[in-house]
Amino acid sequence: MRLFVLGATGRTGSALVAQGLARGHEVTTFGRSAFVGKAKSLRIVVGDPMHANDLAAVLPGNDVVLSALGTRGIGATSVLADGVHATIEAMRCAGVRRLVIVSSSLLDSNIAWFPRFVGRTFLRHHVHDQRAMEKQVTESDLDWTVLRAPRFNNGAFTGRYIVSAESEQTETSGVPMSREDVACMMLDTAERGNHVKQIVRICGARL
Ligand SMILES: NC(=O)c1ccc[n+]([C@@H]2O[C@H](COP(=O)([O-])OP(=O)(O)OC[C@H]3O[C@@H](n4cnc5c(N)ncnc54)[C@H](OP(=O)(O)O)[C@@H]3O)[C@@H](O)[C@H]2O)c1
């Protein structure tokens, strides 16, 4: 497949690129700073993910957009909302329909009291931006999948994770997962073509 990765210079994004290449896909990275890496099937493009025209110029021919854009810090931000606005417009122009994008379990209605508290206080700006991003994605006519992820850690790749419906409260809900496993889940979703037009919850699998 031809994968178009946003946020490739980030921690989840770089795992996506490495695993995508290892699975034999062609990977294009697109970001304001150049992804550092070299491989025959890797194309590195520098551009502004907030600008639809920049994106639309390089998107044609790709099968799926995988977005791991994000911001650090806890201040007000609209990176996710602005980024997805440009992405959706560019995908429509370029005729690319499949979008797999990371969101957060903090948006779930049935999370435990502590993450709910964190989402309403310290991380409220993130949650606001993630909600605005999800709204645009779910109202679009693309073949989208939103992955609501729990807290990330820098653990190793296991290839194991649990997927559940947005409304479902599973025994393992909220178990943190490594960015490597988030990347694995995104690639599995892209390859299998499943969870189309669905918001799904993902979490780590207890070993
Ligand atoms: N951390 C958690 O526990 C957690 C839990 C659930 C969901 N998430 C979500 O998962 C996603 C990925 O997280 P991560 O930790 O892998 O992210 P990260 O390492 O901070 O990477 C963020 C990426 O977004 C890009 N970016 C940030 N601001 C930008 C801007 N203004 N314009 C263009 N590009 C910009 C960065 O590019 P540069 O290299 O150019 O800065 C980088 O490639 C985020 O959306 C996050 O909210 C995180």
Report on this structure.
With 207 residues, the chain is of the alpha/beta class. 35% of the residues lie in helices and 24% in strands. It has helices at 11-22, 52-58, 79-94, 113-120, 124-139, 179-192, and strands at residues 2-6, 26-31, 42-46, 64-67, 98-104, 143-149, 152-153, 161-165, 177-178, 198-204. The chain has an eight-stranded mixed beta sheet, sandwiched between helices. The chain has a two-stranded parallel ribbon with strand order 7-9. α3 (79-94) packs parallel to α5 (124-139). The two termini are 31 Å apart. NADP nicotinamide-adenine-dinucleotide phosphate is lined by residues 7-13, 31-33, 49-50, 68-72, 79-80, 102, 104, 126, 149, 151-152, 179. NADP nicotinamide-adenine-dinucleotide phosphate (NAP) binds at residues 7-13, 31-33, 49-50, 68-72, 79-80, 102, 104, 126, 149, 151-152, 179.
The SS-based structural class is alpha/beta
**CATH architecture label:** 3-Layer(aba) Sandwich
Number of domains: 1
The main sheet orders its strands as 3-2-1-4-5-6-10-8
Which blocks of ≥5 consecutive residues have pLDDT under 50? none
Helix and strand pattern: EHEEHEHEHHEEEEHE
- Profile the largest sheet: 8 strands, mixed
First-last Cα distance:
31 Å
How many helical elements?
A: 6
The average pLDDT value, as a whole number, equals 94
Cofactors, ions and other ligands in the entry: NADP nicotinamide-adenine-dinucleotide phosphate
Q: Per the principal axes of the C-alpha atoms, what is the gross shape? A: globular
Output the CATH topology.
Answer: Rossmann fold
Fraction of residues in β-strands: 15-25%
